[in-house]
Amino acid sequence: MNAPATNAIDWNAVRADFPLLAREVNGKPLVYLDSANTSQKPAAVIETVDDFFRRHNANVSRAVHTLGSEATEAYEGARRTLAAFLGVRSDELVLCSGTTFAINLVAYSWALPRLKPGDAILLSRMEHHANIVPWQLVAQRTGATIKVAELHQDGTLDLDALHAAMTPEVKLLGITHVSNVLGTINPIAAICREARKRGIVTVVDGSQAAPHMPLDIPSLGCDFYAITGHKMCGPTGTGALWARREHLEAMPPFLGGGEMIKEVRFDGTVFNDPPHRFEAGTPNIAGHIGLGAAVDFLSSLGMQDIAAREHALLTHATEQLLKIDGLRIIGTAPEKAAVISFLVDGAHAHDLATLLDLEGVAVRSGHHCAHPLMQFYGVPATCRASFAFYNTHDEVDAFVAALRKVRRLLG
Q1: For 338-353, how does the pLDDT look when each residue is reduced to its tens digit (9 = 90+)?
Q2: Which of 369, 379, 399 is nearest to 331 (CA)?
Q3: Active-site residue, 233 included
Q4: Could you report the per-residue pLDDT of 118-143, keeping only the tens digit for each?
Q5: For residue 183, which of 215, 152, 216, 209 has the smallest C-alpha distance?
Q6: Where is the Aminotransferase class V domain (predicted)?
Q7: Of 138, 299, 143, whose CA–CA distance to 203 is shortest?
Q8: Which domains does the chain have, with CATH numbers?
Q9: Catalytic member of 96, 192, 233, 369
Q10: Has residue 270 got a pLDDT over 70?
Q11: How far apart are CA 11 and CA 406, in angstroms?
């Protein structure tokens, strides 16, 4: 993503805010290139979670004592912080464990009661399993069918084919904003505009977008947008679903229990207003307060500057990797996030990743929860190097040097 920087930032000082990045692995300085899997956490997030457990630990919305009030205010404050970061209203933001939960919430609370035989769900070839499997389960229970929009070889969506697939029986489109494998940035606003013309509800997987670019969800024109907190410097088990208010008000609860009710009688229950209607039970309080701190940290840097920094790392890494004989990059879309999936002739992805780890370089290998995409490219797996703003150009060079060494070892 070609984004110009707006401020002069000392990225080495920023990197120093991440304690784990100072460690060694196998006697080598750690080069962490797996942020698309999970990001590292700055000290501000670690300290915020620690402070909650040390000084404020209590359940939310269940007690009038001081600790309970402090916990509730901190938790709801994190909701407001995240909502402002995404450009949405806080009463449209359901806090949950992440994108997988969020998409399942839409599948079971919005789609399951509405879809019927003859209806169709449209997905793209590049979707993560979390944006495929829930729709398959819903289709099995409703009699709906799954349609697939294909790609070009460079990893861009075939937009003409996608629009042609938006036929009258399609009621819902599930689409990723940024591919976790290819790095492709999809033109979500244009896609959602075409879907809305046809009355198709849109569910956007924003897991790989929210950590890496400025977001203003209302401008995208989607109906639902899901994010995952642990990919954006927050704790694991955190995330959110944004939905248009009219959808939230029309959707029945996904889970039943405490907090999501106003009144319970044996002859019936009055449910809470959204978003709390969809937040049954005790939430990950400390985690979401930590996510609020992560959002504050990202906002202090500026998402435009983060995008520019990561684009520079992506450009440098791509240029250097292309100099390695026998290396093939999977996914070369013109608009990319800082993700590079690659293969080396004669080497299995798992072997590459294992040997790179011996050099202190952490990359992911496998199908990346995207079996249909691997099938499209005719490969069982790839290695994936994913960069974040806390990485450095020196780390890119160390990664390339390690890969050259591994390449020689494998012959």
Answers
A1: 999 999 999 999 999 9
A2: 379
A3: no
A4: 999 999 999 999 999 999 999 999 99
A5: 209
A6: 31-399
A7: 138
A8: 11-41+302-410 (3.90.1150.10), 46-299 (3.40.640.10)
A9: 369
A10: yes
A11: 29
